[in-house]
Specification:
- The chain is α+β, with helices and mostly antiparallel strands.
- The chain has helices at residues 6-29, 36-49, 55-60, 116-132, 142-155, and strands at 53-54, 67-70, 73-75, 89-98, 101-110, 159-160, 166-168, 175-179, 196-199, 202-204, 210-212, 219-221, 227-229, 232-235, 242-243.
- Helix 1 (6-29) packs antiparallel against helix 2 and helix 4 (116-132) packs antiparallel against helix 5 (142-155).
């Protein structure tokens, strides 16, 4: 969507604030021994208390409130009986609907004694996002975001998972434009003031090739290497973008 009225920005901010509260609540409880289903219920409780709905469940009939992915699971992990262990990377990916507006964010949470490689991987995803904010501005092409993200990821010794990336959002989860994490020549759209998108580096320690798990939802790294994910929903402006899912 493209923001045209102040009320639309306020609606988007309200949805974004709930996403942030859910992620913060789940993040506080990430520890060895907790299951991904238990983490999901923590987020779901916050969501219900704030009058929001799970956008993945609403739009795609996803079998959970939030997507919770561990280690080699890059995105769309189904909450269940898998137990978080010391050394894991836990990806918390939350999208909600509130009063007709949707917002989306994700973080990677290192658990306990995480290896140096995994810690660097999680930090790289966040750093690539920060670098992308310099070009996620009116007048730049969408492909510039991907160019900056991939450059930062590859210079850090990691790989972009090219099958996954950001997208337009606002009234539903996935809108135009597609926002790749590499300089796709097809991503030629000019970013305009008011456009609402997600920027989300999804990266891996291995080749970056992805496969769909047997559950039909979870996208995993093909070589079993760990992945990391960092995301915010933002509104394009002439200067620094407005991050509606950030504090």
């Amino acid at each position: 969507m493209s923001i045209k009225e102040p009320a639309e920005l306020e609606g988007l901010r309200a949805a974004g604030a709930i996403v942030r509260l859910m992620i913060e609540a789940m993040r506080r409880e990430v520890r060895p021994g907790i299951t991904t289903r238990e983490l999901d219920e923590i987020g779901a409780t916050v969501m219900r208390q704030n009058g929001a709905k799970s956008a993945p469940a609403l739009v795609y009939s996803f079998p959970g409130t939030s997507c919770i992915s561990l280690n080699e699971e890059a995105v769309h992990g189904i909450p269940g009986q898998r137990t978080v262990a010391d050394g894991d990377l836990v990806k918390l990916d939350v999208t909600v609907e509130k009063d007709g507006f949707m917002a989306d964010a994700a973080v990677t949470v290192p658990v306990g004694a995480v290896s140096q490689e995994r810690r660097h991987l999680a930090a790289c995803a966040e750093r690539a996002f920060a670098k992308a904010m310099l070009v996620a501005r009116a007048g730049f092409r969408v492909s510039e975001i991907g160019r900056v993200v991939e450059h930062e990821v590859e210079r850090s010794g990691f790989s972009v998972i090219r099958d996954l990336g950001g997208h337009g959002i606002g009234r539903t989860i996935h809108e135009e434009p597609r926002v790749p994490n590499y300089p796709d020549p097809a991503a030629r759209q000019i970013l305009t003031e008011g456009l609402v998108i997600t920027v989300e580096p999804i990266i891996a320690a291995g080749s970056g090739r992805a496969v769909l798990a047997k559950d039909g939802w979870t996208v995993c790294t093909a070589d079993g290497q760990p992945s990391a994910h960092y995301e915010h929903t933002l509104v394009i402006s002439k200067g620094e973008p407005i991050l509606v899912t950030a504090a």
